Structure formats: C-alpha cells, structure tokens
Amino acid sequence: MPQRCFDVHADGDYDVMVVGGGTTGIAAALAAAREGARTALVEALGFLGGNSAAVPAWLGFHDGVGERVVGGIAQEIVERLQRRKGATPVYTDPICGSVVGIDLSAWKLLALEAVREAGVDTLLHSRAVAVDLKGPAVCAVLCMDRAGLRRLGARAVVDCTDAGDVVRAAGGRLRRGRESDGLMQVASWTFAVEGVNFPALFDHYRRVPGDIRPFPGVDGGERLRRMASDEVFVIGSFRSLIARARREGMSLPRDIFPGVAFPRLGRVFSVATRVEEADPLDARSLTRAEFAGAGQVPLWLDFLRRYVPGFQDCRLAWTPHQIGLRETCHTEGDYTLTADDLMAGRQFDDAIARGGYHMDVHPPDHAGLDTRRPPAYTIPYRCLLPRGIQGLLVAGRCISATHEAMASTRVIPIGMALGQAAGVAAALAARSGVEPRAVPVALLQARLREADALL
Ligand SMILES: Cc1cc2nc3c(=O)[nH]c(=O)nc-3n(C[C@H](O)[C@H](O)[C@H](O)COP(=O)(O)OP(=O)(O)OC[C@H]3O[C@@H](n4cnc5c(N)ncnc54)[C@H](O)[C@@H]3O)c2cc1C
Description:
The radius of gyration is 22 Å and the shape is globular. The N and C termini lie far apart (56 Å). β8 and β9 form a beta hairpin. Strands 1, 2, 6, 7, 8, 9 and 19 form a 7-stranded mixed β-sheet that branches. The protein is of the alpha+beta class. α1 packs parallel to α11. The chain folds into 2 domains: 8-65 and 104-183 and 329-450, FAD/NAD(P)-binding domain, CATH 3.50.50.60; 191-318, no CATH class. It has helices spanning 23-34, 72-83, 104-117, 165-169, 198-207, 220-229, 239-247, 283-307, 339-343, 403-409, 412-432, 441-450, and strands at 8-19, 39-42, 57-59, 87-93, 97-102, 121-123, 127-134, 137-145, 148-159, 174-176, 191-194, 233-235, 259-262, 267-270, 315-318, 329-331, 351-355, 377-380, 392-394. 31% of the residues lie in helices and 22% in strands. It binds flavin-adenine dinucleotide. Flavin-adenine dinucleotide (FAD) binds next to α1, β3, β7 and α11.
C-alpha cells in the first residue's frame, strides 16, 4: 500500500483558541480577545458566520412577553449593523420573542472587520481534525489545510464547531439527537424569493385569516396592521393553500410554510424544505441531504407561484452555501439542560446566559412543530464543560442540553451569549493558569455583566 503522510508544522501558541467561526465562535473570539487573551479563531470555510450566512433573521433576543434576555456582543453587533443599514429594528413576537432582519452581505463584512479590530488571529480554510492532550487536558489543536497539519497550542480551547469536533477528538462523550431514538431535528436548505406583491398577500390574509401564522394574544386586525408596517415578520401557515395543493396532487413536505418576510424588499426567506436523517458526521449522508434539500426548492417555488396570492411572479433570490443542520451532537457536560429547566424558568447559581425562545423542535417524524413557550430561563456554566476533559469549553449547538432544550438555545442570539461566556471563561482560565472548571463563577459573571451580557 502506498503511504501518504502529512507534515505537521507548529504554528503559534495562544492563550485561547476558538474552533468554528459561526456566530457563536465569533462572539467567543471577540470576548476572549477583549479580555486581553492572545486569541486564535479557526474556521473550515472561507468566511465567518457559519449557518448565519444563510439565515437573514435573528430570533430570540426577547422572551415571549417582550423582556430582553440577550445583550452583550450579540446586541452590539445588531446595533452596529443597524447603524450601517444592515439590520432592521428589532420587533417583538409572542412565539419567537423577537425578530430582527439582517442583511447577509453587511453581516459577513462586519464579522471580518470585528475580529480584525479585536486583534483575533483568524485562520480560514482550516479544519480542526485532532488535538494533543496532556493527560486529560487539551493543549493543542491540529488543523488541516492543503499544506498539511498545523499545530496550534492553547491554554484553553473553545469548541464552537456545531457538532463538537474538538470534544470528539479529545475523547469526550457526545450524544446524538433525541434521547429516545437518537433521531435529530430535520435539516433545511434555506432559500429566499423576491418579487412578492405583499398588498395582494395581505388581501388574501383578510379573506382567509386561517392562513396567517398564529400570533397568540394579538387579534387578527392588529396582526395585519403590524405585518403591513413592520420591516420584517415571521411568516408561516398558508395551511389552506397547502392542503388544496396537496388535494390537487402536489407532494409538499410540510403542512405549513415557515419563514420570514421582508415586505419592503418584496422578499420572503423560507425554511420550508425538510430533510430527514442528515448525519452530520457522514459526508455521504450530508451529500444526499444537499441533493434532497435543493430538490425541494423547485417544488415550493411552483407551489408559491400557483397557489399563493402575491407570489405569481416571484423569483429565486438566493440559496444557501450548504444545508442547515438544526441539530447535531450534544456534549455530555457537567450538567445537562432539560426542557423542565426551561419550562420552570430555572435560575441557576452559575448562570452565564439567558434565553426565552420557544422550544422550536422541527421533529424528525411528522409530528407538528413544537411551540411550547418557556418563560425567561438561565443556562448554567456547567453546560459548557465537557465531562472528563480539561482545558476545553463548548458553546453553541453542541452544549450539554437535551434535544428539546437545545431546540430553544440554538438560535443565533442565545448561541452568541453562550459564545461570549465561553470566551471570557477561557480567557480567565488562561490568565490564571487554571483549568476552566476552576474559574470562579462569581468573577466570570461579573466580567460578563460588565460587558453588558444578561445573566
Ligand atoms: C435551517 C435553519 C434555519 C434557522 N433559522 C434561524 C433563524 O431564523 N434565526 C435564528 O436566530 N436562528 C436560526 N437558526 C439557528 C442558527 O442559524 C444556528 O443555530 C446558529 O447559526 C448556529 O451558530 P454556531 O456558530 O453555533 O454554528 P454554525 O453557524 O454552524 O458555525 C459553526 C462553524 O464551525 C465551522 N466548523 C465546523 N467544524 C469545524 C472544524 N472541525 N474546524 C473548523 N471549523 C469548523 C463551520 O464551518 C461553521 O462555520 C436556523 C438553523 C437552521 C439549521
């Protein structure tokens, strides 16, 4: 057998290394660098933003009664985008808490600008594939690019990879999907259409109010008034139209059409495609998922043009860089956040972030969408600490949480709050030469509050 070897070259030593440059990793890197840590950020793709580059609306800055639960870096980024007309105002929503529309190009530019300003050493086009361990502690991450393997040493590492790649490489325990059967939420190939005639859509809503997405506590007239005046709103339903299209032979993958509408731009963003069993660890499975997701877009376009008033002349505006995975692997951490914690609005002593977004489970079977709405809840620091591993924190979708709890914490603002907490904790650990578990929680909380995070 011919042997192929990769060179391993040493490339820097850092206080904090963040792996994964999505919204969570960006927040982690900014937070660590602002604490004075020499910080590296490693990202497999050629841009920063991850899944947020295919999602033009950030949900969940508020809980269901309009109280703000996320501040800090996430809030700062939105305000910076707003100042350059790259984000809409934030509108409250009784199910999603709140929605803010994001201009994806403006966000991608700002992401690069923000990490450069903060002095983060950013390495794109590099995938973390292995770690070096000193006993149970991660002390370096090995990243792969076309030149071979690059070894980056770090006193503390933050895994923001969405699937817990660093935890896995370090021998940590991860679980997949639902506790009962391991199945994960469905994935979606997001897309947007433009050229939508909103006045015609609103006329339809007046005639068939059942096609409006439910908006608890707000009557139909007020709902329509808000839809006509807000720059962005969460759209859904078209229930009667989908039922009719199905009766007439269309095979649509969902009973409703979830997404976000931008009336002033004549644009609608959709997450209506539905792909089951996309295995985040298997390229063959992911490839099948990309084909399946893309394959559903023409079907939805056909439905919109034929059945939905206002969409007759709509055209495809954009498609994502890759399929969006709502759920991947959950780290087994020092504490596992549960749906009961959320529904009880539990206030943990070691809280490092808050949430209030609904339990947005897109189920792997054909059960309806889960819309349980927790009150404002907190997330404990222990959920960021992988059991049995030292020198490592997790943030984002791979924190230690159940399938249901993660369905609420997975949205962008809450992910960024977790990233910010992990970044500060990693910097504090590196500065005092202790392992992240030994960081005094009161100090971590104080530093987060000083940085406008809400705990
Ligand atoms: C279809 C869909 C629709 C959604 N809609 C909304 C919405 O409307 N509003 C909202 O707020 N949230 C929404 N979400 C949730 C939200 O988009 C994500 O949960 C959030 O963007 C996750 O951010 P993240 O940084 O934790 O992970 P990601 O954005 O997935 O970022 C992880 C990054 O890590 C990189 N990476 C992975 N492995 C490695 C490795 N080994 N080495 C180096 N880099 C690596 C990836 O390339 C990626 O850039 C949606 C999610 C999906 C899937």
